[in-house]
Specification:
Elongation Factor Tu (Ef-tu), domain 3, OB fold (Dihydrolipoamide Acetyltransferase, E2P), 4-stranded antiparallel sheet, 3 domains, single chain, 23 strands, alpha+beta
């Protein structure tokens, strides 16, 4: 009987000890294995309140300024025998542009003008003799002189137009860029028909396409950036159209190149400053973009606090942010992408 009781008591002690061990083991092991929360190393920057420009980005093309372009026209009815230049070519003053051959009609008109001068000279000599013999009145002599003068003027005009020459070369009246060629070899052209357009090399401007309804005005600052590379060009809007283009539905704005030289037809991006406002600026590296949305980490004491923001205009190394923030707040920059909300941080020197 005593032996059975002792066995029963022994088993009970073992069970109680096992239960106590199960209860105490996780608690004791958790304390031993717990790791301290990691501390992130970051650099910080102070948010600044600055006057920021509202910039609208538009596109356009370099075109010849109509006010500084000239049209070279045919001086007479002629046939184009040679074209020496191509569209887009830069030419010097006096350089050959087009060679013309006489058209049948212009040759005939020149012969008629020359014949009229010969006839008028002969008639004046006849009337002069009669007048000296008192067989012609003074008004007859005056009429003969006027007829000769008119015939000579007509012949001079023909000669200035190149009549009487088998071939006539039209030359550039000034240095410039050939923007348009209207005639080809073999074409019959009438007198005063346009042959080509010559624009001044320093007279080009950019035509930008503006969205109707935007706050655009003459005098607004524009930074022109060639699409295919090159230094930016500072300028201002010289003209804003008030009629939308029927194809693009945009308003034309003319922006001078201010002495810069870009090819006619080159594509250009224009950044137009339409207004300015006060805003908070943060370094680009301080703004974290991930699946949760754009945010920054404000360093308060030794903790990082996540603050969601919306971003505004890009200013190169800095970016405008909007949110429950104020100027003077310190935000993490280097190391910001490794942070979590509430994470301990240690600020290191930049």
């Amino acid at each position: 009987m005593n032996r059975g009781l002792l066995l029963y008591v022994g088993l009970a002690v073992v069970v109680i000890a096992a239960v106590a061990g199960l209860i105490l083991w996780p608690h004791g092991g958790g304390e031993a294995d717990a790791e301290p929360h990691p501390t992130a190393q970051v650099t910080v920057a102070t948010l600044q309140s600055e006057t920021l420009q509202d910039v609208v980005s538009v596109f356009g093309v370099v075109q010849a300024d109509a006010a500084s372009s000239i049209t070279v026209a045919a001086p007479k009815a002629a046939i184009v025998s040679r074209v020496f230049v191509r569209s887009g070519q830069t030419v010097a003053s006096g350089e050959a542009l087009v060679e013309l051959a006489n058209a049948p009609g212009s040759e005939q008109a020149y012969r008629q003008a020359a014949d009229a001068v010969g006839f008028a000279q002969g008639d004046l000599a006849r009337v002069q003799r009669l007048y000296e013999e008192r067989l012609a009145a003074s008004d007859q002599l005056a009429t003969a002189k006027k007829t000769l003068a008119d015939a000579q003027a007509a012949l001079t005009t023909q000669q200035k137009q190149g009549a009487g020459q088998k071939l006539q070369v039209l030359r550039a009246p000034r240095a410039g860029i050939v923007t348009t060629i209207s005639s080809a070899v073999g074409d019959h052209v009438a007198q005063d028909a346009p042959m080509l357009v010559l624009a001044r090399a320093d007279g080009a401007a950019v035509k930008l396409g503006l969205e109707p309804g935007g706050h655009f005005a003459v005098g607004q600052a524009v930074t022109l950036k060639p699409v295919f590379g090159g230094p930016p060009i500072a300028s201002r809007i010289a003209m804003v159209g008030r009629a939308a283009d029927q194809t693009t539905k945009t308003l034309d704005a003319i922006v001078p190149l201010n002495g810069a030289t870009l090819p006619i037809g080159a594509s250009v991006q224009g950044e137009v400053v339409t207004a300015s406002h006060q805003g908070l600026v943060a370094p680009r590296g301080a703004v974290v973009f991930d699946e949760t949305g754009a945010h920054v980490f404000v360093v308060v004491g030794d903790k990082a606090q996540r603050v969601f923001v919306s971003v505004g205009l890009d200013h190169g190394d800095a970016i405008e942010i909007k949110g429950p923030l104020s100027a003077g707040a310190r935000v993490a920059v280097d190391g910001a992408y490794e942070l979590q909300d509430g994470m301990p941080v240690k600020v290191r020197a930049k």
